[in-house]
Amino acid sequence: MANPVDKAKVLIEALPYIRRFYDKTVVIKYGGSTMEEPGVKRSFALDVILLKYIGIHPVIVHGGGPQIGELLTKIGKKSQFVEGMRVTDAETMDVVEMVLVGKVNKEIVALINQQGGKAVGLSGKDGKLILAKKMKLTRSQGQGRAPEIVDIGMVGEVKQINPGVIEALEKENFIPVIAPVGVGEEGETYNINADLVAGKIASALKAEKLILLTDVEGVRDENKKLITTLDARRAKRLISQKVISSGMIPKVNCCLNALEEGVTKTHVIDGTVEHAICSRSLRT
Asked: Residue 4: enclosing H or E segment and its boundaries?
């Protein structure tokens, strides 16, 4: 057990970081297996609450792919994916919205509130927070042939973020928790990748940091060694060389886009480690 002097030293060591990030916005994408283990879930909530209490403004964007897949299986509907995107017909969209907005969002809000925070749940429909349009997905058919246009249903991309509702909640010291469901010009509902939403919200808020919590340590180089710092030029080179591949590509591209649009720094970190946010992303 640390004695009072050791505890005081820890607080004093944290002072430069508290001063540096005070009154800054940090957007955190939370999802996947990072939402499953009770101890990790609790540490996530405590990290978020701590940020709020020391004067940092956390904004949470969550996913829910495993939970959506589980419910679809229960109702006898098979999940289909194209280029990593869930094919979303009308019935699937109803399930997506029900799970993300009605279940996962409320669970995260309750988790934070139970630990002493003040969280409020939102979807992209609230205050027209996330205006979306249908995603146009193309797939290469080989040399000399025009790309194939693939219809994956009600899958959207962000057209515009209207951050007013988030800023209003921040002024009243609430923690926004956002489900990645967008609304189209005609009121139609779109299923949007949570990483993409987190990046666009971070850009709209001119956030100090965008933190993507995942279930791996981070980005690795040609020798499988963890990369602690990665600039845009090297990131693009590693993607072209297929060193960065599979599900890490959209995460890295999300970070690159956010940096180009005004976010100061981005992180891809292992969210399955307890207190990952405070221990791994607020030291730089």
From this structure: helix 4-21
